[in-house]
Amino acid sequence: MVKIQYKACKKCQFLTEEDVCPKCSGDTSREWQGYVYIVDYTVSSIAKSMGIESNGRYALKVR
After folding, report:
1. Residue 48: in which H helix or E strand, if any?
2. Has residue 58 got a pLDDT over 90?
3. To 5 degrees, how large is the angle CA 38–CA 11–CA 46?
4. What are the boundaries of each domain within the chain?
5. What is the DSSP letter of 4?
6. Which of 13, 17, 29, 38 is most buried per CB count within 10 Å?
């Protein structure tokens, strides 16, 4: 069983497996806590409060 090791972007908090964020080209970190999955950012109050403008998986806190 292979466990996926997600990394969080330090700029936009997007979760990815890559070393560089595919959304904003920012650096990623393995040190993050909690996540939220945004299904429809246009109606999500959480996405609005976090400044998220696209659907996906985002970290709540990134170091």
Report:
1. helix 45-50
2. yes
3. 30
4. 7-62
5. P
6. 13
pTM: 0.89
8 A C-beta contact, residue 62 and residue 32: yes
pLDDT tens per residue, range 14-34: 999 999 999 999 999 999 999
CA distance 12 to 3: 24
Q: Does domain 7-62 correspond to CATH entry 2.20.28.90? A: yes
Contact residues for 59 (Cβ-Cβ < 8 A; gap 6+)? 8, 13, 14, 15, 32, 33, 34, 35
Q: What angle do CA 33, 61, 30 make, to 5 degrees?
A: 60
